[in-house]
Amino acid sequence: MSEGLYERARFRTAGDRGLLVEYGDAIDPVINRKVRAMAIALGKEPPEGVLEVIPTYRSLLILYDPLLTTSSRLEKDLLALEERLPEIQIPPPEIVEIPVCYGGEYGPDLESVAQSHGLSPEEVIRIHSEPTYQVYMIGFTPGFPFLGRLPEVLHTPRHKTPRTRVPAGSVGIANDQTGIYPIESPGGWQLIGRTPLKIFDPQRPNPFLLKAGDLVKFKPITPDEYRRLAEGDGD
Amino acid sequence: MEIFRVLEPGIYTTVQDRGRYGYQQFGIPISGAMDQFAYRVANLLVGNPEDAAVLEITVFGPRLEVLAEADIAVTGAEMPITINDEATEGWTSLRVRPGDVVAFKQVRSGCRAYLAVTGGIDVPVVMGSRSTYVGGKLGGYQGRPLAKGDLLARGPAEPLKAPHKLPPNFIPRYPSEILLRAIPGPQDDYFDEGLRIFFGSEFKVSTKADRMGYRLEGPVVPHREGMPQSIISEPSVPGGVQIPPDGQPIILLLEQTVGGYTKIATVISTDISRVAQAKPGDKIRFEEVDLETAYGILRAQEQALQKIRETFAG
C-alpha cells in the first residue's frame, strides 16, 4: 500500500524562504499520515525562524524567515524532529460528518456520472458516502479540501469546459478525488451534491471547517433536511 | 477617521499590507503588497509602522478627494502624482488638506505604485491582515478593488513634525529589461537542456500578468526526456516558476496557493519587487544564484532599510 514512502525525508529548495520536504512519491494514506504527524510535531516544537508549515499529499512546505534561520539548519532540525517522532504525542485525526443532498438542483451531474459508469444514481450515492475520506490537502480556494481515495468505480474526468460558477457547498468528483467548493468559484469538477454546511466562513472564529489530516464522512440527506440545515447555519 | 473619497478608482487599486501569513495551509494565499520594498518605504516616509496598510495602484492611478489633513507618500512605479493638478514628487512625504484632489499621471516606468497615509488605511483585519485577496473576496475594502464613491478611513496618528524625503541613491529604477535572480528548484531535476534555455534566454511578459502570476513568452523550455510534466499538487511559494506542458514559464505570485506543474526555479524574495514593476511587453532574463547569494542580497536590502529608518529618525 505504501511502497512510495521514502526511508528518509528528501529536501527540495523552494527559493530563499521555502523548503519542501518530501516523505514519499504517491497519493497514499500512509505517506499522508507521516506528513500529518510531522506537521503536528512541528506545530508543537517549531524550530526557530519557521513562519508556516503547509501539509500536502506527500510533502510539507516550510516557509521560513531567512534572517532567522537557513535552509541547511532547518534540514537538520527536521531530521532530528523526525527521529524523535515516536516520542511525540500525535492525536488521532478528527472525523467530520458532512451532510450532503445528492442529485437534483444540488448535484446536476449525478445522473450523467451514474450513466457513465453504468450505475443508478442511488448506487453512486451509496458508494460515494460509504468510505471515510482523508483530507490530503487544502488549497485552490479558501478551505477547499482535496479528499481521497475515491472508490475506483466513481473515477470520472473533469468537465472539458469548466463551469464559470459553481455554488458554495457543491460536492464534486475529479478523477480519483472528491472535494467540496467552499466559496462560489469557477470549477470543472463533476457536481453530484451539495452540503448546507459552510466549509469556509471568514466571520467565524475558526473560518475553516476542515484541515489537512482530518477524516471526512458524507451523510446523504433529503432536500428538506438541506433547507432546514441551511437556514440553521446562518448564525 | 475618513481620509479619502474615491472619485475615480483607477484600473486596479487595492488595499494591501505585509501579507496574510499562517493561512496558506487553509488555501489562503499570502496576498499583500507585490513590491514589498516600495511598500515599506512608503510607510516609513509618513512615519507609519512598516506593516501598515496602503493602496497598491496598478498602471493607471485613482483620483482621490482628501477628507482630512494628513501626510501621504507615493513610492514604487514612476506615476507622477498631482495635488489639485499641480505636479509633485514621489518618494517624499506630502501634506494634504480637506478638499485637495490627489491624482496620478500616466505611468512612465514600473507598474505598481504605493500610496501610504499617516495612520495607515483602516479596513477590518481579516485573519491577521488588511490585505485584499480578490479571488477569495476577503480582506481589504470589502474584498475587492476600489470603486467610485468608496470612502476610505485611516488609523489614528500624529502628523509628521518635519517632512521626510528618501535620499535619491535609495530610489530603485524600473527598467523595461529586467534581470531576475533565481535559485534552481524545487523540481530542477526534471530539466536538463531546459535549464540552459531558461537561464540563457530572454522572455517577454505577456498580457496575462497579475497578482496571481506572470505568464511569459519565449523559447520553449523543454522537460527532460521521459520526465512527467505534472507532479502531485503541492503548495507554491511566491516567485516559483512553473513550466506547464507548453514550455512557457509562469512566475507564481502572491494570490496563488497550489500548483501541479513542475517548478524549474524560484525567483529570490527580494526580486519579487522587480516582478511587481514589470509590465506586459517588458523583457525578462533569469540569472542563476545559490541560496547563500540570495540570503546575502536579502541582508543587504534589510541594511538599506535600516539606513533609511535612521535617516528619518533624524
Question: What is the element layout, followed by pairings?
Answer:
The complex is a heterodimer of chains A (235) and B (314).
Chain A: E1 5-13, E2 18-24, H1 29-44, E3 50-55, E4 59-64, H2 71-83, E5 95-102, H3 110-116, H4 121-129, E6 133-138, E7 145-148, E8 163-166, E9 170-174, E10 177-180, E11 185-187, E12 190-194, E13 215-220, H5 223-232
Chain B: E1 2-8, E2 12-16, H1 36-45, E3 54-58, E4 63-66, E5 70-78, E6 81-83, E7 86-87, E8 93-96, E9 101-104, E10 109-117, E11 121-122, E12 151-154, E13 177-184, H2 193-200, E14 202-209, E15 213-217, E16 230-235, E17 240-243, E18 250-252, E19 258-267, H3 272-276, E20 283-288, H4 291-313
What this model shows, in words?
The complex is a heterodimer of chains A (235) and B (314). Chain A has 235 residues and is an alpha+beta fold. Chain A contains 5 helices and 13 strands. Chain A has helices at residues 29-44, 71-83, 110-116, 121-129, 223-232; strands at residues 5-13, 18-24, 50-55, 59-64, 95-102, 133-138, 145-148, 163-166, 170-174, 177-180, 185-187, 190-194, 215-220. A 7-stranded mixed β-barrel of chain A has the order 5-12-9-10-7-6-13. The mean pLDDT of chain A is 93. The mean pLDDT of chain B is 95. Helices cover 15% and strands 34% of the residues of chain B. Chain B is α+β, with helices and mostly antiparallel strands and 314 residues long. Chain B is built from 4 helices and 20 strands. In chain B, helix 1 (36-45) runs parallel beside helix 4. In chain B, a hairpin with a 3-residue loop joins strand 14 and strand 15. Chain B has a 7-stranded antiparallel sheet with strand order 7-6-9-4-1-12-11, with no helix packed on it. Chain B has a 7-stranded mixed beta barrel with strand order 13-19-17-18-15-14-20. Chain B has a 5-stranded antiparallel sheet with strand order 2-3-10-5-8. Chain B starts with a strand and ends with a helix. The A-B interface holds A 12-18, 20, 25-27, 51-59, 61, 63, 66-67, 70-71, 137-144, 146, 182-183, 185, 202, 207-208, 211-212 and B 21-22, 24-28, 126-127, 135-138, 183-187, 232-235, 237-240, 257-258, 263, 266-269, 291, 294-295, 298-299, 302.
